[in-house]
Amino acid sequence: MRDEIPPGVEEGAVILDGTPIRYVRSGSGPAVALIHGASANLGDMSFGLLPRLAARYTVVAFDRPGHGGSGWPARGGEQLEHQARMLRAALSELGVERAILVGHSYGGAVALAWTLEFPESVAGLLLLGAPSQGWEGGMGLANDLLAHPVTAPWFSWTLPGLMNRMTVSRLVDVLFAPQRPPRGLIAHVGPGRIFTPETLRANAVQLQTLRRQLLAMVPRYPGIRVPVEILHGTEDGVVSYGFHAPPLAAMIPRARLTPLPGVGHMVHHAAPEEVERALARLAAG
Asked: Which InterPro entries does the entry mention (predicted)?
C-alpha cells in the first residue's frame, strides 16, 4: 500500500543522474524542506505536519534515497553528505535555492550534513529527535544481517514474509512510546513501501554507517552559523535526549534547545504546536 496524497498536494519526482527522488509539495510562503527518518518515507511527514505547515509555508517533503519512491543511487546512498547533496539538487530543480530544513531522527542527521556542506542553501535548521553524537554499540542483529553483503540478499527477501499487521503495529508502538500513533498513520505511510527487500537493505546500510559519520561531523558543529532549533522528547527511547540534544545545543552558537517533557521519539506527531512555534522563530530570523 502506498501513502495517499491529499487533494491540492503536488506529487512528482526529480531525476538526478538516472535516480528518481520523489517529492510532494504544498502551500505558499517561505520554503521548508521536510526530511523523514529511518524505516519511513515522506508519508510520515505528509500525514499531519505538511498540511499543517502549508498554510504558512511552501513545504516540500522528500523520500530519501532508497526509500519510498526514490531510487538508490549508483554510489554514496549510505552517505549523509551524498543524500544531502541529492536532496539539495532536487530542491533546486523545483526552483528552491534556500530553505529551512526540518529533519526527524535520521533525517535530522541528513539535515545536519546538508547544513555543514551547503550552508548557503540553509535558512534555518529544525531538528526533531535527531541523533548528532557517536554512540557505543551497534544497530542490532537484524540490521547487521540486512547490511552484510553475504546475508542481506536472503534476509531481505525473507523478512517481509514474516511481517504481519500485528508485528508492524508493535514496531510503530515502540517508535511512538509513550504516546500512541495517530489513527490512520500506518495506512498512510504504507508498510508495503517500507518492508521491501530493496528498502530494507538501503535502510540497514544507512544505519550501519551512521555512527561513524556522526563522529566525523561532531568537530564541525561549532562552525554552524545558521539559526538552529532542537526539539527533543525527554522520553525518547530511540534517540536518547540526554546523550544527543544538550551536547549538540552547547556546540552550535545559534542553537536553541526545547526539551519536551513526557514526549517520545515522534515529536512532529506528539507536539506539532511546538514544531510550528520553532519554525516560526526560524522564519522570523
From this structure: AB_hydrolase_1, AB_hydrolase_fold, AB_hydrolase_sf, Epox_hydrolase-like
